């Protein structure tokens, strides 16, 4: 398994498939290698790659963790994510410029893992990509199921009784299973190029929804000003850390996004500005949501909104866009499975089995924010912090000073510690809800 395999797969009938190294914003509708992105387009690509549904669980996390602790955690995770993304860029440049490197073109995170650690490195990256991307999609289904159950059990709709069950079945389960056949169809499409704009549209809707929610939160806060806490406990700190790490998804897109920039020397600057902007947006969104509702903040902040027409449209819009983003987020998972089990060839039954597995997990997890914390702690810490630092250390260990080595090793230890601790506390939260 190596770069020759990837070339062979690329030449197969699945050439049009968006792969692990495919940016969402192409140039004039062409693949990323035909044209290069300007700085504004690169900023948009970074934003699309990083911002996801995790933002909707931030107000609840601020309530659980304390607003000051959460703000600090969000900016700390943003800084650490930026640093690790830059480590990937430096590692690739070192490997590609080295005369001893057998791989002149490293296109993705998985390629980098193979170049540094061989099959073990690629397997580590592939495993974390599968778990994290599938975890994102589980979160999408939980959000859709819980939101629709909340909306259509509302007395304002009068479509069904206020009970959370439909014909004796939990409403959340009914809505998730209702999505299942349509997701089978969407995820069966060999080429998802036409669906990429829907992900961009989803982020636009997210921004609009965040604006509406923040405005609504500000009005409510100015009227009632509930009591809020600045700090939480140790367990809630790890819980909040997991949600924050989940919210800064997109580490796997760092290498392809840098590759498609016209002026690669500006990559660090544009990425840094994007991370600052997103961190400030996350901090404001989480804080305003908590300040408005206090200890009544729900795990999905849109459930705290009123039952008016605007609120309904915002929640339905988010559900629709997450529904169509699902196949795009699952595509790296398909790429890994089809490369490993079908030599890179399209396989319908693998895709359908994966959609079924994701749907079953979504049915078992009751709380949206709890699951965000679990995925962020268990997989995103490894993918976002441990592996980039490990690959950087292994590549530069013969020439770096003790300070650089200590930094890389320190991030590895920190990532492992936060991952294990956060996973443990997240599982406690999930199972405590069921008991």
From TrEMBL:
It is a multi-pass membrane protein. The keyword S-adenosyl-L-methionine does not apply. Keywords: Amino-acid transport, Membrane, Transmembrane, Transmembrane helix, Transport. Residues 38-426 form the Amino acid transporter transmembrane domain. Residues 1-22 are annotated as: Disordered. Pfam families: Aa_trans. InterPro entries: AA_transpt_TM. It comes from the Eukaryota. GO terms for biological process: amino acid transport. This is Amino acid transporter avt3b. It comes from Castilleja foliolosa.
């Amino acid at each position: 398994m190596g770069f020759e395999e990837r070339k062979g797969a690329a030449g197969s009938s699945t050439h049009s498939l968006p792969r692990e190294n495919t940016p969402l914003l192409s140039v004039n509708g062409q693949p990323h290698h035909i044209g290069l992105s300007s700085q504004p387009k690169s900023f948009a690509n970074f934003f699309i790659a990083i911002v996801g549904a995790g933002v909707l669980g931030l107000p609840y996390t601020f309530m659980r963790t304390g607003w000051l602790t959460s703000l600090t955690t969000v900016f700390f995770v943003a800084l650490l994510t930026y640093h690790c993304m830059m480590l990937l860029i430096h590692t690739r440049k070192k490997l590609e410029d080295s005369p001893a490197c057998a791989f002149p073109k490293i296109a993705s995170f998985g390629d980098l893992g193979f170049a540094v650690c061989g099959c073990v490195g690629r397997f580590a990256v592939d495993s974390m990509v599968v778990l994290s991307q599938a975890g994102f999609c589980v979160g999408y289904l939980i959000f859709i199921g819980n939101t629709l159950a909340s909306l259509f059990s509302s007395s304002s709709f009068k479509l069904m009784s206020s009970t959370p069950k439909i014909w004796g079945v939990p409403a959340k389960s009914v809505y998730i299973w209702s999505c299942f056949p349509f997701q089978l169809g969407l995820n069966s499409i060999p080429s998802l190029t036409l669906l990429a704009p829907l992900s961009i549209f989803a982020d636009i809707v997210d921004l609009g929804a965040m604006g509406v929610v923040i405005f609504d939160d500000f009005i409510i806060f100015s009227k009632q000003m509930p009591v809020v806490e600045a700090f939480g406990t140790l367990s809630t700190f790890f819980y909040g850390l997991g949600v924050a790490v989940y919210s800064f998804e997109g580490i796997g897109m760092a290498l392809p996004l840098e590759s498609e920039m016209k002026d690669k020397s500006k990559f660090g600057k544009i990425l840094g500005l994007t991370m600052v902007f997103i961190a400030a947006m996350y901090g404001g969104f989480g804080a305003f949501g908590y300040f408005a509702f206090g200890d009544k903040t729900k795990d999905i902040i849109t459930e705290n909104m009123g039952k008016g027409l605007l609120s309904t449209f915002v929640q339905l819009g988010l559900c629709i866009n997450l529904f169509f983003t699902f196949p795009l987020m699952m595509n790296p998972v398909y790429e890994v499975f089809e490369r490993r089990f079908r030599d890179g060839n399209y396989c319908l039954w693998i895709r359908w089995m994966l959609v079924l597995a994701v749907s079953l997990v979504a049915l078992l997890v009751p709380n949206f924010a709890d699951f965000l914390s679990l995925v962020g702690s268990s997989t995103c810490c490894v993918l976002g912090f441990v592996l980039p630092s490990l690959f950087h250390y292994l590549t530069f260990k013969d020439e770096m000073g003790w300070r650089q080595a200590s930094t890389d090793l320190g991030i590895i230890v920190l990532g492992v510690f936060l991952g294990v601790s956060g996973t443990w506390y997240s599982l406690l939260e999930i199972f405590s809800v069921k008991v």
